[in-house]
């Protein structure tokens, strides 16, 4: 599979502080999911912000389809890459539909207002993440998890080929976490490229084609989840004793899933 998103030698440092990222590199193909795992403060969110140009790398390059993103205008980049940040509260009571319609801005001309088609695309995105019935609800009157789903719907309405998602399952209850992982798998099956972070290593087994273990601003290991994620690698990554357990399940046919279990005693 050809690489769609390529990152080479990416480094980043905030002014007056030690580097946050050190020579990070990876490639992700169309229809692939890359899951970034690692402890807090290791540079995962900073890496995502560099991908969408909210942070400027000190070294390295990012390319999409062989084109350096540094040569793209903000609108061009937004047509290729959509960003889903972690949900946060807001003081402005926009409806969820209005928030999702904002994702249509890369497709609008200067001073152009959203059309009926743009609102239809936004409504369809809300339906896809399961909160279409909340379209007219002010964002100040929904839960954090529902706001997170609205941000994901906004990214879908943007119709970009690459989705960059910062902990997309954060703030979601267990049922919505499962639905979100299914959605990520479905997006990949439809040809989207997804780069996501998670604090739940088991999520990589559920939906990722590749996993990158990040520690102290570097990629410590990169590859398929079955090859990279082990009790030893997770224990070294997080500094706690972890086991990876294979559990047999039987529905229509026998299958096996892998679950990461922390050892509490």
Question: What's this, in brief?
Answer:
This protein has 265 residues and is α/β, with parallel strands linked by helices. Helix content is 31%, strand content 29%.
Characteristics:
single chain; 265 residues; alpha/beta; 9 helices; 12 strands; globular
The strand order across the widest sheet is 6-7-8-3-9-10
The coarse silhouette is: globular
Report Rg: 19 Å
Sheet having the most strands: 6 strands, mixed
Mean pLDDT: 90
**How much strand?**
25-35%
Count up the helices: 9
User: What string, H for helix and E for strand, traces the elements in order?
Assistant: EEEHEEHEHHHEHEHEEHHEE
Share of helix among residues? 25-40%
What is the terminal separation in angstroms? 44 Å
Instruction: List the uncertain runs.
Output: none
Descriptive notes:
The protein is of the alpha/beta class and 265 residues long. 31% of the residues lie in helices and 29% in strands. It has 9 helices and 12 strands. The strands form 3 sheets. A 6-stranded mixed beta sheet has the order 6-7-8-3-9-10, sandwiched between helices. The chain has a 4-stranded antiparallel beta sheet with strand order 2-1-4-5, with helices on one face. Strands 11-12 form a two-stranded antiparallel ribbon. Helix 4 (116-128) packs across helix 5. The longest helix is centred in the last third of the chain and has 16 residues, at 174-189. 41% of the residues are buried. The mean pLDDT is 90.
